[in-house]
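Worked Example 4.2. Consider the chain below.
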Amino acid sequence: MTNLNYQSLLLVLLLFLLLLSCEEEGCTDSKALNTDYAATVDDGSCIYSDVVFYGSQFSPCPPVVVQVNGSSIENITASYPGGPGNCSVPGVAYYTFSSGEKIDYVALDDCGRIFSGTVTPSSVNDCIKIRVF
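Applying the procedure from the previous section yields the following structure tokens:
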């Protein structure tokens, strides 16, 4: 082989290795709202769903305290019989997912009634509405 053939072969090999080493950064979590399916490296830019916990009636024993994974987040102080129209209404408890992991929630009123469950972030709903009573 001539020197020119070796140089051409080496150039093709280097270009091939360069193409293989290209990594696309973005959100790689499929439970995020902004998943980038072309990304191969997670850059921490994932955005997750908000959760609004609401009551469909007034609790006879207010306040209703909402806890997520054992930590109190907010009290529910209003009622929405048909559910809140959006996630920015007063008197509800808000939570924003920080990862694609599910959360456990508990809502407890002063009469000792407990409403609990588990919720997972949604890749299609930016606002998940949970009726706790």
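The chain is about 15% helix and 30% strand. The domain at 50-131 is CATH 2.60.40 (Immunoglobulin-like). Compare this with Example 4.1 before moving on.
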